[in-house]
Amino acid sequence: MLYPENCEERLGFNEVRQLVRDYCLSTMGQNLVDKMQVMTKHDQIDKFLRQTKEFKSILENQEPLQISTFFDIKVLADKIKVEGSYLVEEELFKIYTSLQTVFSVIRFFDERKEVYPSLEALFEHLPIERNILKKIETVLDAKGKIKPNASATLLEISTAISKGEQEVRKKMDSIYKSAVASNWVADGSLTIRDGRMCIPILAENKRKIKGFIHDESASGQTVYLEPEEVFTLNNKLRDLEFDKRREIIRILIATTTELRPYIPILLSYHGFLTKLDFVRAKALFAIKIGAQMPVLVKEPKTKLINAQHPLLLLSFANDQKSVVPLNIHLNEGMRIVLVSGPNAGGKSVCMKTVGLLQMMLQTGLLVPVDEHSEMGVFNQIFADIGDDQSIESDLSTYSAHLNKMRYFVEHATPKTLILIDEFGTGTDPQFGGPMAEAVLEVLNQKKVRGVITTHYSNLKLFAGDTEGLENASMLFDNSKMKPLYILDIGKPGSSYAFEIAQNIGLQKEVLALARQKIGTNQNSIDSLLVNLEREKRQVHETKVKLANQQNKLNQLLSENEKQKSFLEENKKTLIKDAKVQAQNIIKDANKLVENTIAQIKKKQADREATREIRQNLQQGLAKNEVKPEPKPVIEFDDTEIEVGDWIQLLGTENTGQILEINKNNLVVAFGDLRSVVKRNRVQKISNRQVKKLVQRTSFTNSLSDAVSNFRAELDLRGMRGEVALQELENYMDKAVMLGFPSIKIIHGKGDGILRKLIRTHLKQYYKQVDRMEDEHLDRGGDGITYVYMK
To answer: For residue 626, what pLDDT band results from cuts at 50, 70 and 90?
Structure first.
């Protein structure tokens, strides 16, 4: 229930309705948009939201769903109901094209069973009657015209007309050529007059050809004559045309009669197309404003994250500006938020954003918020916005406000959302403040939810001391004297009346006099609020910096853990390989020693033979000796260093390439690492050796580069199933090859379809996978899958 009647207008919902209406393809869809109302049943709202979300997904994924051609079938079905009436060719073709759209849409969803369950429910019990198309196809061609062979009689008539026209044309050409040869014809060729083909004859020659004169030129010098020989033939043709028209009407009547039993089905198809157009329009509007489906709860509460006013969003987009997002929540502990702050600081926009988004949600529209936002269902939405004074009703501005307050107090419940702008204004502040405080206290006792804007200090103090009420302020940069449009919950805000007046140039003597009149206490309170706001903003900025630093630290720690894990894995592999190689060397050495001993025994300790055998032994052992790789000798170049040159860091073996030169500072790439080095700490490498150096570096670091470039995280959100699985296979092949112990796959929540596809594919095709787990609820839950390798 909405109160007052102009609530939709005051919150801007009428403008939203018109924007959605503009996306409709048909008047039927527009009528449904006009009938949109605030719903209070959770399941009903959830169904409408999910339908819009699924259609939005279809549009964003560019699925081949074509909905562009359909008409108002209901009007045509009503015409069919009347006995003896018939649909003309154009109307039959409208039904035909509309039904083609219906069956095309149904086929689209049949090919994607259970992918879009909410949209499938639209035609769950819809009968498929293709006989209607077949009946229309027997009489209409692809362009919507009656086929010449729609009946045997029509074919016979059409054939006779064709032959008659050829005979008339042949006869007319013969007479025309004869008249031209006799110079009886005026300038021009054969022409049509009164539907008959005529020859333009000079007036003085009109008696020379027998026939019927249908017209003459404005000057009277030319007459348009139908020859007597052709006159009879044309009469026969006209009779045939009348016969053809009568036969076409007979066919249309027969076809319409055949369609009459299908009227209930046609009306069902009409309803389906209407709903489809309606949902499509809502989805297109959602894409336009970047809307999402928040978490829908049954309780009357709200938790908006990064919410934006849709109308303000569209307006700013035209001016290439961005909207400052709103973060606010209303629940059992914080039922009413009292927003204060400077004029033009965004208080009213904050309140209207909460009201408009709630109204949009409960009419089945997606809203521009973060998808993790939570929005409940309210049975009533009451709004007191703007000036409702009335001369006819003898109501002043304040009287109009009081009338609304009386209604609010009388009808409000814990499931009521109340929105009040500039609470208590319109009368003497000395009396308006206490009256507003009393109303606020009663509304709070009724446990209503709401957002209220005010400048009254007594209301700020009352909210600070009362359970269920919470102060909030719109932040203001008092150094630049500009509003920040950020809602800060937890403290009241200053109106910055003197600061704003001073900024716009109000005379100093006026400001000084005003400060004297306002009183010391009020001045102190206002100054205290200003100082508190300044300190709060500084704390907020510090917290943001600390949060950014913490994020960077967490990233570094995460990377460090990954590198450590990788090194541990490779360490085991290298040790294993080294052990195998050592065992092979020992085996070869043992064989060589045993053979040497056997040979010595065989030679019976002959001195020369023994010396020769020992030399062979030493040579054999030397072959298995692992020699350190010699360090390459690098040639240096004394010429000036330029961008692109290769250098060596003095005192080290590290080499890199120059990316930038800033005076004495060089930006050098050491592999994937970028570093700033002083010019006097490097030595340029000669061009002749650069190629060998690059090849050696590329060869020795190929595995290291592959590991450093590989991220143990894959984001598949927004991808279609086939594309996502292809990306997953490419990624898993690299992960298995590089020996990563675990990886993180981000697929989003949605309806869980992509998550199911990914997990099924991994279980079926990758034996290296040990287990899969969801991320912690606070960090994404089942929207993220961790894959652990064996």
So the answer is: very low
Tokens found for residue 337: 């938020």
Listed residues 429, 461, 495: the one ending a domain:
495
CA nearest neighbour of 338 among 180, 466, 197: 466
CATH number at residue 763: 3.30.1370.110
Same domain, 261 and 342: no
Alpha-carbon distance of 158 to 137, in angstroms, equals 19
For range 630-643, the mean pLDDT = 69
Residue 343, annotated ligand binder? yes
Number of folded domains in the chain? 5
Order of strands, sheet of 682-684, starting from the edge strand that comes earlier in the sequence? 673-678, 665-670, 655-662, 646-649, 682-684
Q: Is 211 annotated as a binding residue?
A: no
CATH of the domain at 60: 1.10.1420.10
200 contacts 185 by C-beta, under 8 angstroms = yes
Kindly state the average pLDDT of the residues 365-379: 95
Q: Could you check whether the bond before residue 4 is cis, i.e. omega within 30 degrees of 0?
A: yes
Flag whether 341 is marked binding: yes
- The domain boundary, picked from 289, 314, 333, lies at 289
> How many Å apart are CA 553 and CA 751, to the nearest integer?
34
- Residue 179 annotated as part of some ligand binding site: no
> Is residue 783 annotated as involved in ligand binding?
no
User: How is residue 312 written in tokens?
Assistant: 């303000």
The model's pLDDT over 488-536, given as tens digits with 9 standing for 90+, comes to: 888 776 666 666 666 667 777 777 777 676 655 455 555 555 566 666 6
* ∠ Cα 738 743 745 (to 5°): 130
Q: Mark whether 610 and 727 lie in a shared domain.
A: no
Across the range 178-198, mean pLDDT stands at 82
Rounded Cα distance between 389 and 427, Å, is 13
Task: Please tell me the least confidently modeled range out of 104-113, 552-561, 691-700.
Answer: 691-700
345 is in an annotated binding site: yes
The packing angle between helices 89-110 and 263-289, to 10°, is 60
Amino acid at 363: T
Find the mean pLDDT for residues 270-279.
93
Identify the CA nearest to 88 among candidates 223, 228, 251, 239.
251
379 marked ligand binding residue: no
Tokens (6 digits) for 330: 């209303």
Alpha-carbon dihedral sign for residues 472, 477, 483, 487:
negative
What letter does residue 657 receive in the DSSP assignment?
E
Q: To the nearest whole number, what is the mean pLDDT of the chain? A: 82
Q: What pTM does this model have?
A: 0.61
| Domain with 550 in it | 541-624
Does residue 630 belong to any structural domain of this protein? no
pLDDT at 245 over 70: yes
The answer to whether the annotation marks 669 as part of a ligand binding site is no
